[in-house]
């Protein structure tokens, strides 16, 4: 018979490991960024949309590639693309390299989103730098880049 650990101790260990902390920090960042994007007028966007859009290259990307990069099914990516298309952020075109495939590209509204998102990111980073101070901010960035360089599969390293 297995000796079971104390449930409270196990729950604390589940919540306080580095993976959970990184996930919670990323989620808090994404929620803050989405709130600020909404303040810029992008109220139609959800977290699901803003989790897909960073994987869309400025020159366009196939849906299957978007799905792979975002870690979702092609059907889920297609649904999000359809929603973004209905809101005017992206449009689909035949892929010039393979006419059977579809390439998703930003529209003018999508480019406006990109510019607003860059401003939002800079503002959040400035806020974080102020909160942490320059030395800790620099150490955090260096540590995260080191971890990602060592532990990111090559296919994801450019996204």
Low-pLDDT runs of 5+ residues are none
Order of strands in the sheet with most strands: 1-3-2
Q: Summarize the biggest pleated sheet.
A: 3 strands, antiparallel
* Helical content band: 55-70%
Residue share in β-strands: 5-15%
By DSSP, the count of extended strands is 3
Distance between the termini: 47 Å
Mean pLDDT score: 92
| Global Rg | 19 Å
Summarize the structure.
The chain is mostly helical. 64% of the residues lie in helices and 11% in strands.
List keywords for this structure.
159 residues, 7 helices
What does this structure look like?
With 159 residues, the protein is mainly α. The protein has 7 helices and 3 strands, in the order H-H-H-E-H-H-E-E-H-H. It has a 3-stranded antiparallel beta sheet. Strand 2 (90-95) and strand 3 form a beta hairpin. Helix 4 packs across helix 5. The chain is globular and about 60 Å long.
